[in-house]
Design goal:
homodimer; 594 residues; mainly alpha; 71% helix
């Protein structure tokens, strides 16, 4: 039988299980005993803050404590001589890698979850999400994702509204396109800047805006020689930063570049295959060859999927080998690596169609196909399918448990069995990536396909609900994770909006309507387009510079916090100095007496 | 007779005069008495830190205290009913504007000055400047200027060395120019980023890196309704920030744009006049018309000078009308306004020659003339001429004082009379502006005139000495001013280096050698140039992003300071909470007793 062991298992009267540690089936008794003692020893050191913290915060603390159970003088895990330990090694990590612990996950709070669902997505009505409640249940990182999704959707509405008439009235005048593109570019800059302010507002309210990442304890995967952190004075593993830099610039960077090159190479092969298939079809023109026309696309799609997966593994391995001290630094480096590759895979073919083949019809068609199919597929694969599977499984478990009729508390037992088998939510990465690629489809070629924004808005309204369903019913409850902002994603979205200035200017410059205005000199046309592009880029940077990242009232509050803490330090040091002085005079007075 | 009144005039045995307040000749006795009392009253509140602070720091404190003497219940300055006061108005400012106080300036410390000069510039030898000593005598702002001047000169040496062979061997191959330009662009990015780190290093050592500008008291020119500062809790004038924003965006910005437009308009008139004079000369070709050829340039130079002065006044008026709370904000806004105008005046004609006339010979010639004449003129007008006048004046004063043979301490009297008549150093603005324009000459058209860097290096080596002479012997000692960095100048230099990417790429694209490589298609050429330019710009931004602004050891120290001060605040608050708890239990205990 599996043993479930709660970290808060202290036989209190109103016992609420928070976190489940699933052990392997054949774990030895001595190992269990040792692990329990280590966890309880740690617990005794801690405070008892039951009433003060939300359930999600308690679970976060338990996770943090478990991850920071580090080996002291143990040479191995008791009962498992092959699972070696050294001072400072994270116990949980070694237990997981040796297969002794299978997983650690927090339990859902069914009552709170039901309440949250009611205000969130079960009743279909146009209203804002209960972001603060989401934060209370799932933590800041996930609440920020839903906040961003909502904000982004509302921000896209003006673009969708302005884009619609272009489709309805088949406007093809270049001046209208120029207006649309200019609006888009300025709008996308403004919304990203305004988001920063809104985000600062939210995280200030939650108390996570001034998270001092430098003061954090290292992530469990971090290894190094045990030493003293020079900032906090705590004992922890240290790893020289220049070594990390060397690993990043001499290994990771070249590897990523190589992968990007390889991906481009594969794309070129795909286009060659397309041409070959088209040629074959035109020459023979049979039924059989018309089927052949689809083959290159299918092969390419499969190859891209395989490359994406392989690259993802490589990126995770490399980033964890870079040995970042903080979870946030690890995440940022991983995101950057994966992002660049995904960007190229998604958009390289569109760039090729736009700027090498210069086929705007094909571009519009590919864009529409990619956008719509990816949106539909995502929603089905991500939420609806798992939800259906989940429900089927739930019915099976219920029957089993009812057949058991054990003496133990069946509802808890049932809940653990049910949630244990649920999928694990791998973090907000894929959700953000989806939004990021969507932003790419909307902004990069917006003047070719103004309808994209409307599709994105439609998709996101349902995405909010399917993502909410996914979080509440499909996946295990994730550990809550505090965060101050959407981190590297802000940078990614901003970079995308800079690139989209370049692409849109180029597309407008290439359009036949604009070319008709400059019938004689193509050079003049290009020079004007380049000049406009530079002016727009300059405007973007000036706008980003002129809009403060934090609203004024928050700036003031942060400054006050800083002022007060520096004043407190000053007083503390003055008091210390005064005490020293007193001590000295006391000693010297005694000396005089003798 | 003039009355000199030292703010530290407290009849101590070892009296060192620090600051001179020059009053008008006919000031009434009651005003003098009142002013003396106000100053002494303020002084009694302060600490006595004589031994702890440097002389420059004492003078800075006196200036700060004088500037923050603010009216309480006085309705006017005693004896001058027309000099109105209202609560919170800076007394010194009103005294200066009513002509009662003529000036306030700190005195030189002749002994320390002599020592400083000996290590600084009197002995001609290739060595680093004694930056720490300069900081001790003149304060951080001026020391940072000299530090930047030195750093910038050394940083230009590689560019000068690489540029020389282009001149010596008359290299005209475009590939060599491309290499030179690319090196320049990357180099200029790197040196600006590295300066930030060096600057952080210096100011950390001086203790000014973490100047909390928000905690500062407002600048004397700042006016508003008396209220409580929400950060520090001190009573001071308040002015709503949205009003300032409105003034900036609705008045200052349009005004600056108008001035820029006007300046461009004047330049176009100049070029028209040039063409007209050239035509006249070619048609008649007499001696008289060949003199006429110089007339447009002379008129243009004079007009530019006048415009510069007028604009400077307008900018100062507007910026002080914008009512910035902090001196640094005032300076930054003023610098930005003047900078943009100066940039246009200096470089617009060069841009016109380069990109409209496309005359590279003329460009090289104008560039050389502008660079060399401005450098020579600057050094003469700025330092040597005033120094010569100053010495002549000094001899005259000495004779007068010797003829006087009064009973008072003649050396002090002589010093005050001498220094009173010295020019006032108007801040580092003009010195930085000179360097900024020099950087423009060197980098904007570097591939047309690679020799510019060599001239700049030569100039700067003498500039260090003439600026030092100017600071020590020509001007009144300036008040020391703490600063954390070179402020908005960093941004200005960075912007210049971004613009220079664009100009250099354009120049290379226009060169006949490059055009010869693409004989058929000019379009391809332009597209390639634009692509290279975008790549270089992207590289610049990535470089700026990848090089941290502060060296690691300083990041760690700052983080530790923050950690310790937050910990101190935590402890303070916990102690407070504990005391409250004790108090409450005491009260409730008493209540039970009764």
């Amino acid at each position: 039988m599996k043993v479930t062991l709660s970290a808060l298992d202290t036989y209190e009267s109103s016992f609420t299980p928070l976190v489940v540690i699933e052990l392997a089936q054949d774990v030895k008794e001595e190992t269990k005993e040792w692990l329990k003692n280590r966890i309880i020893a740690k617990k005794k050191d801690g405070d008892n803050n039951d009433d003060f913290l939300t359930m999600a915060e308690c679970q976060f603390i338990i996770k943090h404590e478990l991850e920071n159970l580090r080996a002291k003088d143990e040479k191995m895990i008791p009962g498992y001589p092959q699972a070696k330990l050294y001072p400072g090694k994270s116990l949980l990590r070694r237990l997981l890698t040796s297969g002794i612990v299978i997983q650690v996950f927090p339990l859902h709070d069914n009552e709170a979850l039901k309440k949250l669902e009611d205000t969130w997505y079960t009743r279909l009505a146009l209203k804002y999400q209960p972001i603060d409640n989401i934060r209370g249940y799932f933590g800041e990182t996930i609440a920020l994702y839903f906040g961003f999704l909502e904000y982004f959707t509302f921000a896209l509405i003006p673009m969708a509204v302005i884009g619609l008439p272009y489709y309805l009235f088949v406007w093809e005048d270049y001046d209208k396109y120029v207006i649309f593109a200019s609006f888009n570019l300025i709008w996308s800059t403004v919304i990203l800047e305004v988001w920063k302010r809104g985000c600062a507002n939210m995280t200030y309210r939650w108390g996570t805006l001034v998270m001092k990442r430098q003061f954090e304890e290292p992530r469990p995967g971090f290894h190094g020689v045990l030493g003293v952190n020079s900032i906090t004075g705590r004992e922890e593993p240290l790893y020289p930063s220049y070594k990390r830099q060397l690993r990043i610039y001499l290994v990771s960077l070249p590897f990523v570049c190589l992968c990007l090159y390889f991906s481009l190479y594969v794309m070129m092969i795909y286009f060659d295959m397309e041409i070959w298939a088209l040629g074959l079809h035109e020459n023979s023109g049979s039924e059989w060859t018309s089927v052949l026309l689809y083959v290159p696309s299918i092969i390419y799609a499969i190859v891209i999927e395989i490359m994406n997966r392989l690259y993802r593994y490589a990126a995770e391995f490399l980033t964890s080998w870079e040995n970042h001290r903080l979870e946030s630094a690890y995440q940022n480096h991983l995101i950057l690596k994966v992002l660049v590759f995904n960007f190229l895979n998604c958009f390289a073919s569109l760039f090729y169609i736009a700027f090498v083949l210069k086929d705007m019809k094909l571009l519009r068609q590919s864009l529409a196909t990619l956008l719509i199919t990816s949106q539909i597929l995502n929603q089905i694969v991500e939420s609806l399918l798992p939800y259906w599977l989940q429900r089927k499984h739930g019915v099976r478990v219920k029957r089993k448990v009812q057949a058991l009729k054990a003496d133990i508390d069946t509802t808890l037992y049932e809940q653990v069995i049910l949630e244990k088998e649920m999928g694990t939510y791998m973090g907000t990465f894929d959700d953000y990536l989806e939004l990021f690629l969507q932003f790419g489809y909307v902004s990069l070629f917006s003047c070719v396909y103004p309808l994209a924004a409307a599709f994105a808005v439609l998709n996101n309204f349902t995405e909010v609900n399917s993502d909410a369903l996914k979080m509440c019913r499909v996946f295990k409850r994730p550990f809550s994770e505090p965060s101050a902002s959407i981190g590297v994603w802000q940078l990614a979205f901003e970079t995308m909006s800079v690139i989209s200035v370049v692409t849109n200017c180029a597309l407008i410059g290439m359009s036949p309507q604009v070319n008709a205005v400059f019938p004689e000199s193509k050079t003049d046309l290009i020079l004007i387009v380049v000049a406009v592009e530079h002016a727009l880029l300059a405007l973007k940077f000036i706008l980003a510079f002129a809009i403060p990242d934090k609203p004024r009232h928050i700036q003031v509050k942060l400054a006050r916090l800083e002022f007060e803490s520096l004043e407190a330090l000053k007083q503390q040091q003055m008091k210390l100095a005064a005490e020293n002085l007193k001590e000295e005079s006391r000693v010297s007075g005694k000396e005089k007496e003798t």
